[in-house]
Prior knowledge:
By secondary structure, the protein is mostly beta strands. The protein contains 4 helices and 15 strands. The protein has helices at residues 11-21, 181-186, 222-227, 256-260, and strands spanning 29-42, 57-58, 66-79, 94-106, 109-119, 134-136, 138-144, 149-156, 159-166, 174-175, 190-195, 198-205, 210-220, 235-250, 254-255.
Amino acid sequence: xxxxxxxxxxxxxxxxxxxxxxxxxxxxxxxxxxxxxxxxxxxxxxxxxxxxxxxxxxxxxxxxxxxxxxxxxxxxxxxxxxxxxxxxxxxxxxxxxxxxxxxxxxxxxxxxxxxxxxxxxxxxxxxxxxxxxxxxxxxxxxxxxxxxxxxxxxxxxxxxxxxxxxxxxxxxxxxxxxxxxxxxxxxxxxxxxxxxxxxxxxxxxxxxxxxxxxxxxxxxxxxxxxxxxxxxxxxxxxxxxxxxxxxxxxxxxxxxxxxxxxxxxxxxxxxxxxxxx
Length: 277
């Protein structure tokens, strides 16, 4: 069975699809998300609130805040409708993304708040980051779960984040168990970030995640601790691997205020290149 094509939905996934389509012009883009590794950390409650001003609220699992480091490969970017700059998508053959996220809510909408991320350069030229909280880096993933080993390195500014994980090559990929940490962290279809003090939102849709737990080790974390000194206090608690999906639906980046009010002000379509998970 090719799990990239598996069409399974959950209640949260179905609701996410409705939210994505509720804003005119979305979805804007399709892309494949391949071989995704989620590394989960427990974090002291007092460390995250400075990064989460209103109107977002920190979301807790069993009274504890968490953050995740997510390593994903994105391919085959395709516009959802004819666009005058559609040729640019042909240049985006592959992009690898490592992001740092914690978990929040806006009213009744759960989501992931992106604190920072590192992107591989999809083309060998200078590129903008569209005011997203990220930078370009050297990113190397080998997520060949068929071999039983996953590894990755991200290097920037002379610092590195690297990991290694083992996985049963015969693993069965299943939905997250109800009320599990995996469900809490993975079943998120809305992404938030702050541009200055202005909250932004972007949405994605795909079927419910199919995943398995893996045994992971963090080999080097100086890239993270240099960016967030408090990451030294984070406690690694586990990891999940998902084979991914083809044609994930991606929305544009919107002002959170505009989306709530269903305003039709212009949004930043190009930044969909650098979206979730």
